Amino acid sequence: MAILKGLVSVAWADGRVADEELEVIEALLDAFEASPSEAAELRHYAKDPRSLDDVPVTDMSFDDRRVLLQHAVLLTYIDGEQHDKEKELLEHLCERLRIPATEAKGLIEAASSRAKGFLNLL
Length: 122
Known about the structure:
Largest sheet: none
Order of helices and strands: HHHHHH
Radius of gyration: 13 Å
Structural class: mainly alpha
Number of domains: 1
């Protein structure tokens, strides 16, 4: 749930949550096998504007933080391209998640490459 709450914060970064972003979050609810009550909780959580300050870092393991970053990269490509503001957001997210810059760069590059490969599906 902490990863998904983090993605909600990323989705709200531009002041709104696009339908496509909600679709990704819904798909991840299924992929992470969220219970009906967890899914309802997250949908309710996503209705209110969120910022990176709302990312529940203390609820995430070392690996969870990296999974969140990689999914966040995918979310930044949801409209077909990654904008400078979104790149900046990812930098701030890395700081918030306490992922060292060198490691973050590699994670973002790998996730960006995968996201670009999926653009035809988005």
